[in-house]
Write a structure and sequence with these properties.
Blueprint: H1 9-14, H2 17-22, H3 25-45, H4 52-60, H5 67-77, H6 80-91, H7 105-141, E1 146-151, E2 154-160, H8 161-185, H9 199-204, H10 209-222, H11 239-267, E3 271-272, H12 292-316, H13 327-352, E4 356-357, H14 359-373, H15 375-384, H16 389-408, H17 416-422, H18 433-436, H19 446-463
Antiparallel strand pairs: 1-2, 3-4
Helix pairs in contact: 3-7, 3-10, 5-6, 7-8, 7-13, 7-19, 8-11, 8-19, 11-12, 11-13, 12-13, 15-16
């Protein structure tokens, strides 16, 4: 790794090797050559004078790329595609005359980008599934562990640790569906010519419209796509990029929410992300266990969420059949979007594989708040024992205010239960207070909801990835 020039941390610190390769020069330019080969093969099949020897020469040199020569050619020509046409021709002198025959730059440029988007989504989807899988196991394990719910970040009615995890899973399931739909809806640009009219190919085939249509279909199928866009300008619509990035950004929002919840829970010492034995939380405060992985997820997710704006701006300013002000922007935005999404999912999987729950701490926090939450139960029990609902409500109100002052003004513990036990008015329910205070009776159908949700909506999704769920993530740093 060079230390004399900038290297993106997305490669050096965060993203996977497979995603880095997907957007590498090696894959990009070898894909250009594969597309030139597919075009030549299809043109030969439709009657153009291209020899098997020429095709074989091209096939043998798909990965034989002289990057230094290509760089020299581009410096002279100021055109990356023609630089690589010349470089490929130098490696394939017999085929040089038919390389890029009838095509425009976007034949290789745009079609390659669509292949990279498709392959990038194929890399991301199993990673989303693995995060769902880890959290589904977590939710099932802790489906009955009561915990404080929070609304407005204030203690509210109890839920369970597992039920809260299902809120996270639900959004990841939505992301899987959205990303899968986006991947399946991707089309090939195909063989369309300089402004999308296929005029050059119509000339090649001497006005035979059917052969031009067949050429488009053949190349599209050979490239692994079921359909191509029926109409394009010089490029495929840049709304495609915006749609893809919108889905990635949405997934980033999901990951940010999950990681934020974990950070908040870690501050209460209820749930923690993995923390290694030799890990240092703070250079100054040796006792600290900072949730740095969840913080990293939030940091990367914010970057990911910001990138969709760039693709929207690009789509908005494509004049007529195309302008080149999309090019430099897309070189950065698309690759960074996928590398960042990959890094977010890698880190999220690592976190979800090692979440630690502290039930005793959770129980202590419940005990601090539950007496107030249980007051409605006390009132109902008193009414059943023959008491007056309004009088009981007033008694509870007075004692609750006193207990609240004890907590807020004196910094003491919540002593509402002790006050109720000391008050003869509540003698009819003194023996039932522990039962009325059982946290499990305050979680409603949370455990059942976890089972129902996992069985109905989560397991069917995971079934699609059953052979891709194994393996753990070890972060580089």
């Amino acid at each position: 790794m060079s230390v004399d020039s900038y290297q993106t941390p997305l490669n050096s610190r965060y993203s996977s090797k497979e995603m880095q390769y997907n957007f590498s020069d090696k894959k990009k330019f070898s894909t250009w050559r594969k597309l030139w080969l597919l075009l030549a093969e299809s043109e030969k099949e439709l009657g153009l004078e291209i020899t098997d020897e020429q095709l074989e020469e091209m096939k043998q040199n798909i990965d034989n790329i002289d990057f230094e020569l290509a760089a020299k050619e581009e410096k002279i020509l100021r055109h990356d595609v023609m630089a690589h046409v010349h470089t490929f021709g130098a490696a394939c002198p017999k085929a040089a005359a038919i390389i890029h025959l009838g095509a425009t730059s976007c034949y290789v440029g745009d079609n390659t980008d669509l292949i990279l988007l498709r392959d990038g989504l194929d890399i991301l989807l199993p990673k989303v599934a693995r995060c769902i899988d880890r959290l589904a196991k977590f939710a099932d394990q802790y489906k009955s562990v009561a915990t404080l719910g929070f609304t407005h970040l204030q203690p509210a009615q109890l839920t369970t640790v597992g039920k809260r995890a299902c809120l996270w899973i639900q959004e990841l399931v939505m992301d899987e569906m959205n990303l899968r739909e986006t991947r399946n809806n991707l089309r090939f640009r195909g063989v369309k010519g300089t402004t999308g009219t296929q005029a050059s190919f119509l000339q090649l085939f001497e006005g035979d419209h059917n052969k031009v249509k067949e050429l488009d279909a053949k190349v599209t199928a050979k490239a692994g796509f079921q359909r191509s866009y029926m109409v394009t300008g010089q490029t495929y619509s840049r709304k495609v990029d915006a749609d893809v990035m919108s889905r990635l950004s949405s997934m980033g929002a999901t990951a940010h929410k999950i990681a934020t919840d974990i950070r908040l829970l870690a501050s209460r010492k209820e749930v923690e992300e993995p923390f290694e034995k030799t890990q240092i939380g703070s250079s100054a405060m040796a006792y600290k266990r900072n949730p740095m992985r969840s913080e990293r997820i939030c940091s990367l997710a914010r970057h990911l969420m910001s990138l969709v704006q760039s693709t929207l701006n690009t789509a908005a300013v494509q004049w007529m059949e195309r302008t080149l002000d999309d090019s430099a922007n897309r070189r950065i935005t698309l690759a960074e979007g996928f590398l960042t999404a990959d890094a977010v999912l890698q880190t999220l999987q690592n976190v979800t594989e090692g979440l630690v729950v502290y039930p005793n701490v959770i129980g202590r926090h419940i005990a601090e708040e539950l007496p107030f939450m249980a007051t409605e139960n006390f009132i109902m029990a008193m009414v059943k024992a023959g008491g007056d609902r309004q009088e009981c409500h007033e008694q509870i109100r007075v004692l609750s205010q006193q207990a609240g002052d004890k907590v807020k003004l004196e910094g003491g513990d919540n002593d509402l239960i002790q006050r109720i036990k000391a008050n003869p008015y509540f003698a009819p329910i003194h023996a039932d207070l522990d039962k009325l205070m059982d946290p499990s009776t305050f979680v409603g159908r949370a455990p059942e909801q976890v089972d129902e949700f996992l069985n109905a909506e989560v397991h069917p999704v995971l079934e699609q990835y059953k052979d891709q769920l194994s393996g753990s993530v070890t972060l580089a740093v």
